[in-house]
Amino acid sequence: MKLCREKKEQSMLKECFFFMIILSGIILNFTAFLSNILIQETPEITFISFIATITFSLILILFYILPQKNFIATLTFLLVILGLIPLIWFYDGGLKGVTPFYLFLVLIMTILLFSSWLRYFLASLLIVVTAVLVLLEKLNPDWVIYCENPLCKESNHVVAILITLIFTFILLSLFANNYEGLHMVSRKKEKELEEKNAALQELARIDPLTRLSNRRDIEEKTRYQQRISKRDKERFSFIMCDIDDFKKINDKYGHAVGDYILKELAKITKRSIREQSTASRWGGEEFLILIPYCLSKEAKNIAERIRKAVEEHKFIFNKHIINLTISLGVSEYDFEYPSIKRYIEKADRAMYISKAKGKNRVSVVT
Question: In CATH, which of 3.40.50.720, 3.20.20.60, 3.30.70.100, 3.30.70.270 is domain 215-364?
Answer without folding.
Answer: 3.30.70.270
